[in-house]
Amino acid sequence: MNKFDFNSDFTMFNENDEAKATNKIFHSMIDNAIDLFQKSVTYFKQDYKVSLICFLSACEIFLKARLVKINWQLIIKRAENFSIEKFYQGKFTSINFENALKLIQKHEVDHSNLKNLSLNDLRNIRNRIIHSFINLSEEDYRQDIVSQQLIASYFLQRLLRNQWHDYFKDYTNELNIINQMLQQFREYLEIKYKNLEPELDKISNKVNCIVCNYNSAVPEKYDHHQFTKFSCKICEHHVSAFKYFCMDCDTEQIIGTDVEAICCECKCFIKPEDIYEWLSKDTIYKSKAYDYQVNAEGVSCGYCDGEYDCIVVDNNTYFCCNCFTLAIGYSRCESCSEVYSGKDTYDEFSSYVFGCRKCKGLYGDSLD
User: Fold this and answer.
1) What is the DSSP string of 256-297?
2) Tens digits of residue pLDDT in 107-122
3) Whose CB has fewer CB within 10 Å in the chain, the N or C terminal residue?
4) Separation of alpha carbons 288 and 281, rounded Å
5) Distance (Å, rounded) from C-alpha 347 to C-alpha 357?
6) Is the dihedral of CA 145, 147, 148, 152 positive or negative?
7) Which of 74, 70, 125 is nearest to 96 (CA)?
8) What element of type H or E holds 331?
9) CB atoms closer than 10 angstroms to residue 335
10) Is the pTM of this model over 0.70?
């Protein structure tokens, strides 16, 4: 294999070299992220401050590695006139976690896992640890932090193993370190579960939490008739869920809106059209989307690629049966009149000029 020389003049640099460099940087970033995750696991009981700092750094690197696969310039703070040579040599300032998350959300269709990975509270704690003294030995305080890390680890794993599998499939074995981290968090929260067990035993309508696996998710309130808000008493993960009846095994169950739809009994994959059909049987949800305000075919999701998968669950809230997003209001493409869930998913002027994912707008093919 021919090596490429980054000391040569940039004008001699070709696209093949750039692809090699980007790929090498991507793998280097993943190696660093996994190493930091390993250190986070190692120091979990020895030095929790070090463990938390390594954990957050690893999460940030994973997000930036995903951006590199989109375009390496995205992770550079000032990318104008920036060369791949400097990038490869590490002579740049990268964007922060918040900006990395925003950029990924712009390029990703499915936001269901990303929205649980904001890490705002944990990053604030990390900043306080670095700049001042925080006593992490206080049990209640530490349990809250561990709960947040557990939730973040769970959804990071879903991103890397499922949604971004094509990019991280070469690291399947190495990513088992995240499973180790999850296991440590769950073992640590066992103390909290034991303390709350008498209280939980009195609650008859609780369900298993998808994140911590304890039978501790308790219904808090009912949203939009069949939709219920559950809150886990152990890891404090919040999720909306709905009742569903599996046609294959005749089992009624609760499906969380932040997990893949798989039957808890027969393990079949529940298709969006099955969920749509089931919810449509409830007269409360029938035909509300198909009035004069939206097109006759229905509402597509503004947050994933689901076409006409949205059902109206009240006068102004749409539920996507594909990505499980509950969106307020809808947006209309001013060019082709297609309707999407979410009041801010399409801007009127921009959609008229540039179109939407189903049309090319005013300029049409001239933008190609």
Assistant:
1) ETTS--B-TTT-PBPPHHHHHHHHHTSTTTTTTTSSTTS-TT
2) 876 776 777 776 888 8
3) N
4) 13
5) 13
6) positive
7) 74
8) strand 330-332
9) 22
10) no
